[in-house]
Specification:
InterPro entries: AminoTfrase-like_pln_mobile (IPR019557), MAIN-like (IPR044824). By secondary structure, the chain is mostly helical. It has six helices and five strands.
Length: 139
């Protein structure tokens, strides 16, 4: 079935051409498939890609200085984040929060907003993980 859909995809119009007409994937479809709410606060704003920003945010979120890409200093290695996550003892409230932040960051970089490598995630997502009370309001 997937091969049939690939053959019917038209990148010019971002639609599938089927016998019943053109069909496109909507935000509601994605919300249903992933089980994500779409009625919260939008994620928007400017990003700071300086190494000082990446280092300070990394320490605030992960509790240590992040391992970044040698080519692009604003990208954090997801393998490093996974190792940090898996090493958490989960014996304190803060270690549980760090674990959850690492896990969400990995989801953002490897599932929701992935790039070709799937090995790195942009540091622009770090500020979104600072305030746990606000995380619940994002759409």
């Amino acid at each position: 079935m997937l091969a049939a859909l690939v053959e019917r995809w038209r990148p010019e119009t971002h639609t599938f051409v089927l016998s019943i007409g053109e069909v496109t994937v909507t935000l509601e479809d994605v919300a249903h498939i992933f089980g994500l709410p779409i009625d919260g606060e939008p994620v928007s704003g400017w990003t700071d890609s300086s190494s000082d920003f990446v280092q300070s945010q990394g320490i605030a979120i992960f509790g240590r200085e992040p391992s970044v890409s040698h080519n692009a200093k604003s990208y954090i290695k997801l393998g490093w984040v996974r190792r940090i996550r898996d090493a958490e003892l989960l014996d304190t409230e803060e270690s549980i929060r760090r674990y959850v932040r690492c896990h969400i960051f990995c989801l953002l970089g490897s599932t929701l907003f992935t790039d070709k490598s799937t090995a790195y995630a942009h540091a622009k997502y770090l500020p979104l993980l600072c305030d746990f009370e606000r995380i619940r309001t994002y759409s």
